[in-house]
Amino acid sequence: MAVFVRGAAVTRRPFVIVRCTVALVLVAIWIAACGTGGAKRPPTGTPEPDKFLWDRGTDALNKKRWIVAREYFRQLVDSYPQSPYRADAKLGIGDSYLGEGSAEAYVLGINEYREFLSFYPTHTRNYYAQFKLGMAHYYQMRAPARDQTETREAVRELTIFVERFPTSPLTEEGKQHLREAKDRLADSEFAVGQQYFRMKYYPGAIGRLKPLVESDPGYTNRDAAFYILAESLVAVQQPAAALPYFERIVKEFDQSEYLERAQRRIEELKATLKAKGSPS
After folding, report:
1. Where are the domains of the chain?
2. Which ranges of the chain have pLDDT less than 50?
3. Which residues contact 278 (CB under 8 A, 6 or more apart)?
4. What is the CATH number of domain 2-201?
5. 210 closest CA partner among 235, 233, 187
6. What b/e sequence results for 231-265 when a residue is b if at least 16 CB atoms lie within 10 Å of its CB, and e otherwise?
7. How far apart are CA 206 and CA 238, in angstroms?
8. pTM (2 decimals)?
């Protein structure tokens, strides 16, 4: 399916994860569940059996009894297709997987949230499913020096969340986590540029840092990126190109370890450019 974000269509990945991977994970979860007594069913004659399952599942979820909660929710989803609790139980299944926090559980949780968004495209809790989908990837982000696949997925899904649901009760939290995910990606690029700079391979540093600061103007550590980029440009005899980056440090940061050095550099470069007859 396609989700429209600011006039552009964003194509979702299919909610069904690679079959063999999910099958293996399901087997592992089934084995773990065998010790909990199997499916949870309401007692015979219960007036509202779906509500019984919902209440028990919610209580177990709040107590972090993830497998037990999932058994109640799964029984509700499978046995009461017309229940008003069914959609929320679907989300509860996803939440139980995220609560477990294992790599296998994250895969299954992501699948549950994608299915929810597909099965209930107009549900009032779509914002919650989209937020949790983004967070399932966020929780799996790795250090800047390692593979950033999950970070990119977190950025993608949290961007969809923030843009589709700007007034939801989770939007501010989503924006914060989106910024953190973007910073993780940017830190990965920055580390490479910084290493090039230390090696005095200035074209490489420029090639990494210039696209970084242009593509992500809100990068938290951009003062360091500005400074190293500007110094690299000075090193390759491009003082006029370096000057604006030093000036951005002064303009955008009241406090920065690079502030005083940037101010000195601005004075030096302006004097150099003036002596050469170049515009400042």
Report:
1. 2-201, 202-280
2. 1-20, 26-37, 280
3. 240
4. 1.25.40.10
5. 233
6. bbbbeeeebebbbebbbbbbeeeeebebeeebeeb
7. 11
8. 0.80
